[in-house]
Amino acid sequence: xxxxxxxxxxxxxxxxxxxxxxxxxxxxxxxxxxxxxxxxxxxxxxxxxxxxxxxxxxxxxxxxxxxxxxxxxxxxxxxxxxxxxxxxxxxxxxxxxxxxxxxxxxxxxxxxxxxxxxxxxxxxxxxxxxxxxxxxxxxxxxxxxxxxxxxxxxxxxxxxxxxxxxxxxxxxxxxxxxxxxxxxxxxxxxxxxxxxxxxxxxxxxxxxxxxxxxxxxxxxxxxxxxxxxxxxxxxxxxxxxxxxxxxxxxxxxxxxxxxxxxxxxxxxxxxxxxxxxxxxxxxxxxxxxxxx
Length: 292
Hints:
The protein is mainly α. It has 16 helices and no strands. The longest helix is centred in the N-terminal third of the chain and has 23 residues, at 45-67.
C-alpha cells in the first residue's frame, strides 16, 4: 500500500492499531482486504465484493458520526479511515468490472475527486496533530513542498522522476492553447486548474522514484469548485486538462493494484468525448504518448 518503508509501516502497524481501538477503522481494513481478494480471485469476485460492501457499510456509518465532531482526540482514526476510503474508492471500479476494465472512468474519477476534496476539508485543521504522530509519513506524502508557496518553487529537474521529461513544458503549452481556444468566461478556472496541476507535478517530482498515491491526489484538493463543476458537465476545456493529469496518474497506477490501468481507461474515455472537436483532440497527443 506504499513504496517507502515508513509509509508501509503506517499500513502495517499504525492503522491496524487504530483498528483495534476503533471498530470502524477495522471494518475499513477488512473492506480493502476483501477487495484485494476480489482483485486476485476473479472467480470468487462476487463473494468478496459482497463482503467488502458489508464491512464498508459498517465502517462508513460510524465514520460519518466521527466526522460530525473531529477533535484532536479522535483525528487519528479519522485520518486512517480517510485514507482507507480513498483506496476503497479506487479499488471498487477496478475490482467489480470484468477484466478490471474500469467502466465510466470519467465518472469514477470525479467521484474519487469529490471524496478527496471532502475529506481534506473536514480534516485539514488537524494536520498539525497528525504530523506529530505516527501518521506523519501518511500526511507528509501528500505535500512535499514544505511551507514555501509551491507556485514560487523553481521548476525541479525531472531527471530522476518517472514523470515525462517535458511535463512542465506540456502544461505551459496547454495553457497557451486554451487561452486562445476557449470561452473567456471559464479562463480563470482553467488557469487555476493548470496551476494546481503544475503544483502536483512539482510534488511528484520532489518524491523522486517513490511516488505515492498521496502525491498524485493532491490535485483535486486544490482546484476550484467551478472547475470541478465544469468537469462534471463535461466541458471540453475541463476534459482536456483532466487528460493532462493522466500521465501523472500513470506514474502510480502501474505500482498499485487498486489503480490498475486507471490512467489508460480515463484517457480513452476523454478521447472519445472530444472526438468531435478536432482542435481539442489534437492536444491529446502528449498524454497519449505517455499513457500506455
